Amino acid sequence: MDNKKIKRIGVLTSGGDAPGMNAAVRAVVRTAISCDMECIGIRRGWQGLINSDFMPMKGDSVNHILSRGGTILYTARSDDFMTEEGRKKAVSTCKMLGIDAIIAIGGDGTFRGALELSRLGVPVVGIPATIDNDLGCSNYTIGFDTACNTAIECIDRLRDTMQSHERCSVVEVMGRNAGFLALYVAIAAGATAVLVPERELDFQKDVVERIQNARLAGNTHFMIVVAEGVGSAFEIGARIKEELGMDPRVTVLGHIQRGGSPNARDRETATRMGYFAVKTLAEGRSNCIVGTKQGGIVDIPIEEALTMKKRLQMERYNVLEAMGNFSH
Ligand code: F6P
């Protein structure tokens, strides 16, 4: 299927959803139309491609979705797509529907699927969307900013009641194996301490002493942000109780962080990425991931993109430490 003019694009969202996925779908559909291409929506990610689960998309199919959270195309994590048989079925669906290329919106797992499909001759372009912001190939991933703001709003609410009762709050935020979301949120919410998987935990120094120092500085309530990749916030809460004799309240923010209307950054980035992905195909390039770099958008070959690592900036951890002893 390689190297021919792209006339029909299949677009799908896969893996965990992220606010702004709809904005990316809209941009893909509208840009395709402006380039005289057709667009087919594949529902439920790679599994939908296997099952031939699709919906034709016209310009008005994507009306009013720019501001909607979730994904109108639904999403899934597909075990079948991990098998050769599943992937062959997906290629057959592309042939049957006359799909010349796929634009896949999602995270790491989505792009590993994209690489496998490209190896079977289907041109693919990936758009990074995950609240975890953990992809090395793109400085920014769609959904991160909205998720941060949602988490901050929740923490601000928690702080009100923690302050009234002079309590310690332990809040678990998402991020899978990475601490990008947790560290960003902790700085923006003025947390007493943050625990991230990228930094080996020294409970005495990272938690006990930070609470003690904050107390000595006059604080009577404390906010500990825990990235889910570190472990259970309930266990951290239990250890705080044991070591400091406090009675912390534990909150797991969970999927709340994935919902809601995308904010300006996510709508704008998703729209530019969707546009760029279609233009990439129109210009004859494929098998790449589009990503943000120094304010612009670039495309990187999928294989290379999957090897790229993003480093958690520990300088930010130092920033939080410098703030921590005072009231937020
Ligand atoms: O990758 C996005 C994410 O929300 C992670 O932060 C989290 O670990 C995971 O997905 C949760 O997945 P699920 O929706 O399958 O519970």
Short description:
This protein is α/β, with parallel strands linked by helices and 328 residues long. The chain contains 11 helices and 11 strands.
Could you characterize what this model shows?
The protein folds into 2 domains: 182 residues, Rossmann fold, CATH 3.40.50.450; 111 residues, Rossmann fold (3-Layer(aba) Sandwich). Strands 3-2-1-4-5-10-11 form a 7-stranded mixed beta sheet, sandwiched between helices. The longest helix has 22 residues. It has 328 residues and is α/β, with parallel strands linked by helices. The relative contact order is 0.17. It has 11 helices and 11 strands. It binds 6-O-phosphono-beta-D-fructofuranose. 6-O-phosphono-beta-D-fructofuranose binds next to loops.
Distance between the termini: 57 Å
What gyration radius follows from the Cα positions, in whole Å?
Answer: 22 Å
Sequence of secondary-structure elements? EHEHEHEHEHEHEHEHEHEEHH
Helix content: 40-55%
Overall, the morphology is: elongated
The side-by-side strand order for the widest beta sheet comes to: 3-2-1-4-5-10-11
| CATH class group of the largest domain | Alpha Beta
Overall SS class: alpha/beta
Number of helices: 11
Q: What is the CATH topology descriptor of the largest domain?
A: Rossmann fold
**Major β-sheet profile:** 7 strands, mixed
Which cofactors or ions or other ligands sit in this model? 6-O-phosphono-beta-D-fructofuranose
